[in-house]
């Protein structure tokens, strides 16, 4: 994977850094795994705007991703690595030996022609999915389930990975991308390897229009609003705005909003870094 810095032949390309897309092998998605994707534009069922700064953007079709990896013991060949407009990671098209095709989140280093498999009998190689009970300690993993059979919910974005730290009884200790250390049942599935497209964080859009293509409308800074619109609004000239807080008055930048009585608190060994 690599990034390319463009020559400044236009103002929009002066600071632009684009993805090299070295890992991508095809630009034609699998038609049977596409679904329509309706856009709300930030409006509710009455047509009223309930979420600001959303709307527009290029039309997309959803790629149906297999997050559960439930085809246990059936080998699949990686047919292609593809771009997905709905997520930061790349996706891989799998051709199973029984003829079925599915998309999965592509791991870093996953190659076309490689064979991947899921289940307890799988070996701990990149792209294979297996329960935490069968993964060697210290292994870098991604696409981790939180509950058995739920499907992957953690460490799914570009370059993300977790690490299996320990096992004790029916729980495994996982260090998550946020820095949090958490207990998860050893029957939960995880995929070996870090998520692909780790250079995503290095990209620079170069111009405001690219945000519009992604469906993001211009965002008004709270300090330039009036007091009626935001707690940080008002004042003469360039006022600092007071303590950073949300539109509802909840403090930002360090204020903890997690409930102290939340049932899952007992599974958190160490909180994420401040």
UniProtKB/TrEMBL annotation:
InterPro entries: NA-bd_OB-fold, Rib_uL2_dom2, Ribosomal_uL2, Ribosomal_uL2_bac/org-type, Ribosomal_uL2_C, Ribosomal_uL2_dom3, Ribosomal_uL2_RNA-bd_dom, Translation_prot_SH3-like_sf
Stretches of the chain forming a coiled coil according to its record: none
UniProt GO cellular component terms: ribosome
Region annotation Disordered: where it falls in the sequence: 29-53, 221-274
Keywords: Ribonucleoprotein, Ribosomal protein, RNA-binding, rRNA-binding
Domain Large ribosomal subunit protein uL2 RNA-binding: 42-118
Keyword RNA-binding carried by entry: yes
Subunit note: Part of the 50S ribosomal subunit. Forms a bridge to the 30S subunit in the 70S ribosome.
Function, as annotated: One of the primary rRNA binding proteins. Required for association of the 30S and 50S subunits to form the 70S ribosome, for tRNA binding and peptide bond formation. It has been suggested to have peptidyltransferase activity; this is somewhat controversial. Makes several contacts with the 16S rRNA in the 70S ribosome.
Protein name: Large ribosomal subunit protein uL2
Organism listed in the record: Olleya sediminilitoris
């Amino acid at each position: 994977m690599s990034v390319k810095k463009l020559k400044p032949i236009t103002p929009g390309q002066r600071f632009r850094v684009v993805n090299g897309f070295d890992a991508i092998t095809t630009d034609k998605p699998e038609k049977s795994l596409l679904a329509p994707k309706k856009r709300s534009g930030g409006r509710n069922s009455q047509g009223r705007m309930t979420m600001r700064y959303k709307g527009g953007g290029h039309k997309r079709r959803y790629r149906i991703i297999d997050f559960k990896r439930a085809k246990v013991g059936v080998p699949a060949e990686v047919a292609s690595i593809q771009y997905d407009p709905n997520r930061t990671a790349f996706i891989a098209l799998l051709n199973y030996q029984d003829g079925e095709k599915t998309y999965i989140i592509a791991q870093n280093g996953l190659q076309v022609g490689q064979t991947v498999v899921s289940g307890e009998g799988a070996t701990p190689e990149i792209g294979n999915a297996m329960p935490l009970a069968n993964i060697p300690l210290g292994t870098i993993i991604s696409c981790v389930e939180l509950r058995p059979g739920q499907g992957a919910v953690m460490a799914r974005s570009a370059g993300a990975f977790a690490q299996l730290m320990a096992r004790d009884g029916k729980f495994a200790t996982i260090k998550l991308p946020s820095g949090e250390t958490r207990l998860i049942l050893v029957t939960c599935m995880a995929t070996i390897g870090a998520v692909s497209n780790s250079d995503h964080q290095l990209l620079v859009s170069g111009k405001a229009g690219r945000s519009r293509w992604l469906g993001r409308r211009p965002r008004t800074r709270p300090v330039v609003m009036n007091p009626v619109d935001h707690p940080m609004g008002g004042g003469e000239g360039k006022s600092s705005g007071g303590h950073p807080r949300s539109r509802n008055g909840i403090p930002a930048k360090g204020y903890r909003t997690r409930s102290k009585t939340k049932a899952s608190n007992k599974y958190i060994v160490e909180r994420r870094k401040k």
